[in-house]
Task: inverse folding
């Protein structure tokens, strides 16, 4: 099924997968400890929240929109969870609360975009400022001395003693997303909207409703990512998520999703997330200051996107030639 | 017997335009019903009312005798009205299969979930493609297909709805003869199944080949409905053009001077195929043609907006480079866009800023713009063109359509061109503004300006032009002098009958 498409879609994802594998292998050779169990588990932990949040970002970006308030929303959710967690409430209480909070905040973004017709980047940039600005007024600096029940996910929840539960969480969400991409009508609508909003409307798709639902889902899964981030230590600050949205956007873009929407895949995003989650430890093991990691991330985005752009240009040229040949 | 689709007294008004005026239409089950009319007669608007894209201001839509109203395209689809749009509305980055079913994929139950049933989808798609006798690859991305195949996908998509009424808007516009034949055999099959088909086409010969009845619409009004067997092309054309309404055209006889503008063998990417024409000083020359004939594309190519593939453009005998708008402007060739909102004006800027925009270089010294000079030119334009604006600082978006159009023309004229191409200079403006624009055009012809006027409004071409070129399929297919030009002749050339 879908043979031809698979043949065409695979190379770019396979290339990315190979790229990640090669980097990984080289690092293992150059810095022996890189392949150590501890390091791999630490990478996987990073990978899990980047992946979850990036999937949320991915579905939003497929529609041709974006949400740069993800970082701000994470900070809000982290503080909310700390408030609840401080009382000794377990994860199955504060994680759903965070998810609900994320869904509400992101839905608010979507309402600004669909109802007030504010461009997504402007609307979410504004709400980022609001969240970042209001939070310090409510909480002074940080909430600390959180109980063990709060950090359970990071320190105790291990499968086979080593694998963090968060990884399993991420893989489950990835599996659901992959299945939905293939089998749900909803995902087809996302692609359609990202391709051509006008045509999507003519095809009878309720564009506004779909976009709102997408932001809500994005916020919902972001709540899970935020839980992994917030429960990593006994202290939660008001700027916990600041700037993180760039990592998620990078993972999506590196994974081959078009910034204008309409094309891209969840699998690509997963590989993008994996690539980005090894940058920081890689630099550490290579003895390069961690301060470089942001710059390296930027360089990788440029490389990935320009490779995609070159491919796109070539495709167009090839199409034009085909057309001419026909004429 | 009730009609499959009946429209009663449909009226639809857009700001400044009455698009449909008590329009009526009756389509029976199992018939192919043609809808004919000139450009802008209201055919597409009518279809968009049927499919819920627009809502009629008044009137009734009846399906099998039952009154319905659609708030959006979705509701129309579910009532069994499918449409194939003229401009393709496909999703470029998705496959043929995905495009055919997007938004209404067949689903099956998988545990608690409803998932897309690819097997059913493929089976249905293959069935449709077989019916269409098409060799489309379901897995191919739309962006990899040519125009004709895209059109085929559009038709296939329309057929995925269990439509009882199928609207085809210019379905053959970019199909080859073989594909047209295949389409017609499909239409006959659908007809045999009792589906009502509304068929919009410029190509009259097709109407006589495939349609049972034909309704003519003109200026948004119902004109006539006839059995195809009991009418002929001449009668249809006569119905489409109607009688003159005796508008006022301030045409003055101006002695025509030497040649100012010549285009030789201009070609551009299949849209413009070898256009040659010329304009003399003080002459008003029209370009007639139906939508999609390549008139605007020709103008854009001649002015260097979209660099042509070949050909020459000469202004006053001197060849001008074809890859720079600035250079063609400098040479005295100016184009005034048909779409003033998008391409002609910067709506949020003042009248003054708009008029001086193309020639800021001329108004500046070093880095600084001489505002006084700009103002003087703008003030002058307001007076000369009688633009109804309180001052030259007035923001253009707040002006009426007619006055915006005048600003758009004034902006072109302020460049002091030798030849100006006016693309649909009176589109979407009211009768008074039209008359004013006509006298402006006349007054500039008197000043030896060469004027090339692209227009879809027949009376305006006949009333204003010294000569008229008629374009079809990117070619000049005829040239008529003022004396020989009639609506029938132009339309027949444009329709190729």
Result:
């Amino acid at each position: 099924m879908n043979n031809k498409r698979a043949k065409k879609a695979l190379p770019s994802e396979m290339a990315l997968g190979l790229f990640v594998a090669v980097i990984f292998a080289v690092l293992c050779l150059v810095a022996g400890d890189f392949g150590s169990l501890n390091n791999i588990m630490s990478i996987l932990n990073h990978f899990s929240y980047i992946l979850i949040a990036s999937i949320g970002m991915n579905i939003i970006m497929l529609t041709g929109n974006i949400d740069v308030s993800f970082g701000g929303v994470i900070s809000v959710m982290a503080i909310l969870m700390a408030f609840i967690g401080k009382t000794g409430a377990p994860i199955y209480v504060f994680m759903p609360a965070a998810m609900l909070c994320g869904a509400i905040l992101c839905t608010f973004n979507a309402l600004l975009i669909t109802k007030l017709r504010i461009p997504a980047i402007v609307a979410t940039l504004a709400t980022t400022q609001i969240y970042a600005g209001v939070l310090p007024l409510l909480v002074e600096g940080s909430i600390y001395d959180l109980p063990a029940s709060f950090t359970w996910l990071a320190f105790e929840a291990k499968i086979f003693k080593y694998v963090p539960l968060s990884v399993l969480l991420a893989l489950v969400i990835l599996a659901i997303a992959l299945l939905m991409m293939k089998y749900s009508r909803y995902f087809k609508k996302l692609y359609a909207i990202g391709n051509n909003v006008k045509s999507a409307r003519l095809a009878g798709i309720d564009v506004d409703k779909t976009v709102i639902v997408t932001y809500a889902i994005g916020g919902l899964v972001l709540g899970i990512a935020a839980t992994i981030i917030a429960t990593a230590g006994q202290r939660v600050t008001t700027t916990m998520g600041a700037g993180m949205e760039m990592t998620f956007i990078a993972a999506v873009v590196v994974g081959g999703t078009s910034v204008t929407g309409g094309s891209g895949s969840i699998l690509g995003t997963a590989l993008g997330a994996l690539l980005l989650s090894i940058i920081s430890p890689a630099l550490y093991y290579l003895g390069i200051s961690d301060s470089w990691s942001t710059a390296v991330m930027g360089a990788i985005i440029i490389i990935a996107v320009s490779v995609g752009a070159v491919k796109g240009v070539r495709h167009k040229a090839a199409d034009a030639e085909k057309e001419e040949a026909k004429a | 017997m009730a009609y499959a689709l009946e429209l009663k007294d449909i009226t639809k008004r857009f700001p400044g335009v009455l698009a449909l005026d008590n329009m009526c239409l009756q389509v029976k089950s199992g018939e192919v019903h043609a809808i004919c009319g000139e450009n802008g007669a209201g055919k597409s608007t009518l279809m968009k009312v049927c499919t819920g894209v627009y809502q009629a201001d008044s009137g009734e839509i009846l399906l099998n005798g039952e009154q319905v109203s659609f708030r959006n395209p979705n509701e129309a689809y579910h009532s069994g009205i499918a449409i194939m749009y003229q401009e393709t509305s496909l999703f470029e980055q998705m496959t043929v299969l995905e495009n055919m079913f997007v938004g209404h994929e067949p689903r099956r139950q998988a545990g608690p979930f409803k998932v897309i049933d690819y097997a059913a989808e493929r089976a249905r798609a293959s069935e449709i493609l077989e019916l269409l006798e098409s060799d489309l690859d379901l897995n191919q991305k739309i962006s990899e297909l040519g125009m004709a195949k895209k059109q085929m996908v559009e038709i296939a998509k329309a057929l995925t709805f269990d439509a009882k009424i199928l609207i085809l808007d210019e379905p053959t516009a970019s199909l080859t003869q073989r594909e047209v034949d295949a389409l017609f055999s499909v239409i006959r099959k659908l007809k045999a199944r009792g589906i009502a088909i509304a068929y919009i086409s410029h190509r009259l010969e097709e109407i006589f080949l495939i349609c049972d009845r034909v309704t003519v619409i003109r200026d948004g009004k119902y004109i006539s409905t006839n059995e195809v067997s009991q009418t002929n092309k001449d009668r249809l054309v006569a119905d489409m053009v109607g009688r003159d309404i005796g508008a006022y055209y301030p045409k003055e006889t101006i002695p025509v001077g030497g040649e100012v503008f010549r285009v030789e063998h201009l070609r551009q990417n299949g849209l413009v195929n070898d256009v040659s024409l010329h304009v003399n000083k003080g002459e008003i020359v029209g370009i007639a043609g139906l939508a999609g004939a390549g008139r605007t594309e020709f103008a854009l190519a001649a002015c260097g907006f979209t660099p042509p593939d070949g050909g020459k453009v000469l202004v006053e005998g001197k060849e001008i480079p074809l890859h720079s708008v600035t250079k063609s402007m400098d040479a005295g060739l100016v184009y005034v866009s048909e779409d003033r909102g998008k391409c002609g004006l910067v709506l949020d800027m003042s009248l003054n800023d708009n008029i001086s925009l193309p020639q800021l270089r001329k108004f500046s010294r070093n880095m600084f713009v001489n505002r006084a000079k700009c103002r003087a030119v703008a003030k002058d334009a307001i007076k000369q063109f009688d633009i109804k604006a309180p001052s030259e600082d007035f923001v253009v978006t707040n002006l009426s359509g007619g006055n915006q159009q005048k600003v758009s023309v004034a902006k072109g004229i302020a460049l002091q061109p030798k030849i100006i191409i006016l693309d649909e200079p009176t589109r979407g403006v009211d009768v008074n503004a039209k008359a004013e624009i006509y006298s402006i055009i006349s007054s500039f012809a008197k000043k030896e300006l060469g004027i090339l006027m692209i227009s879809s409004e027949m009376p305006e071409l006949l009333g204003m032009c010294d000569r008229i070129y008629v374009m079809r399929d990117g070619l000049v297919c005829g040239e008529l002098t003022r004396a020989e030009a009639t609506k029938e002749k132009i339309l027949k050339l444009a329709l190729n009958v």
Observations:
- The radius of gyration of chain A is 20 Å.
- Residues 39-296 of chain A form a domain with the ABC transporter involved in vitamin B12 uptake, BtuC fold (CATH 1.10.3470).
- Confidence is low (pLDDT under 50) at residues 1-10, 316-327 of chain A.
